[in-house]
Amino acid sequence: MNTNATVQVHLLPALIPDSALAGGVAVVVDVLRATSVMVRALASGCEAIIPCLEIEEARQSARALPGGSAVLAGERQGVAIEGFDFGNSPGDFTPEVCRGKTVVMTTTNGTRAILASLEADRVLIGAFANLRAMREELSREDRPIHVVCSGTDGLISFEDTLLAGAIVGDLERVRGRTLANDSARIAALAWSSVTSGSEDLDEVLRTGRGGQRVTELGLGRDIVEAGAVDTIDIVPELRRDPLRIVRAGATGAAGIG
User: Fold this and answer.
1) For residues 240 and 50, is the Cβ–Cβ distance under 8 A?
2) For residues 25 and 123, what is the distance between their CA atoms, to the nearest angstrom?
3) Cβ neighbours, 10 Å, residue 234
4) pLDDT, tens digit, for every residue of 39-59?
5) Which residues pair with 70 in a beta bridge?
6) What's the rounded mean pLDDT across residues 28-48?
7) Is position 87 within any domain?
8) What is the DSSP letter of 65?
9) How far apart are CA 117 and CA 215, in angstroms?
10) What angle do helix axes 209-216 and 158-173 make, rounded to 10 degrees?
């Protein structure tokens, strides 16, 4: 097996084997809802996103930015954090909110998964909205690829597994990559089963534990937005020193279309 032509899925950050990401490319997914928000915010014109583990860390990072330039966003257990500008709903991150700003963000699962992937050579951010753009970006890679699912409260999540399957299935079928672990095979089969059905994707996403929780919170519109496929043509990438998420290879304005 050509190890550089492999793709793996890690269904939770805690399931990543020691040093597995080193030398590879990590694609972090948290469909409901952190990575969906990040893709939307960058497409809406934000300059960067700073991922933080803790609430107070996020507040301090926002205070350190020039006055009026920070948008403080995040949630705990799906609920917006008191005193923050926004929670974790993709639809809130419009061009009017984001243009020229830095989003400082902390979430229960997604930002933790990003920060758990730092040993990878590259860390990219995936959502259904930028699926086609992600596939194209990964087609130019010659390093091992790892899709890291954020999960929900330490449990494997249905929606992240589906997106992982949509990514790795294409890499196997179209790009000739080898699915190198059983989690990748499980994810690819899960996505294949969904695409062979007649339900809209957002209706499928509602059936998982994460979708049920978002629905219980009265945020069903977030599921519709998170389930919209190929609406954004950018790929966010984590940069270091300082740590922030920006558009990969951006040379001009990104768009929602």
Assistant:
1) no
2) 6
3) 23
4) 999 999 999 999 999 999 999
5) 102
6) 98
7) yes
8) S
9) 29
10) 130
Q: Contact, 106 vs 243, CB < 8 A?
A: no
Domain count, the chain: 1
Residue span of the structural domain in which 157 resides: 3-247
Is there a domain that residue 252 lies in? no
- Angle (CA) 114 117 119, round 5°: 145
Count the Cβ atoms, other than its own, within 10 Å of residue 97: 17
Q: Please report which helix (H) or strand (E) contains residue 182, including its range.
A: helix 182-195
Mean per-residue pLDDT over the chain, rounded: 95
CATH number at residue 31: 3.90.1560.10
Task: Give the burial string for 242-254 (b: 16+ CB within 10 Å, else e).
Answer: eebbbbbeeeeeb
Q: Report DSSP state, residue 160.
A: H
pLDDT tens digits along 191-214: 999 988 777 999 999 999 999 999
Answer yes or no: is 257 within a domain.
no
| β-strand partners of 145 | 7, 25
| Cis peptide preceding 33, ω within 30 of 0 | yes
Residue 1: pLDDT band with limits 50, 70, 90: low
- State residue 90's pLDDT score: 98
β-sheet with 70-76: strand ranges across: 79-80, 70-76, 102-106, 48-51, 244-247, 236-239, 122-126, 25-29, 145-149, 6-10, 178-179
Angle of CA points 102, 105, 110, to nearest 5°: 135
Average pLDDT of the residues in 238-252: 84
Asked if the structure places residue 13 within a domain, the reply is yes
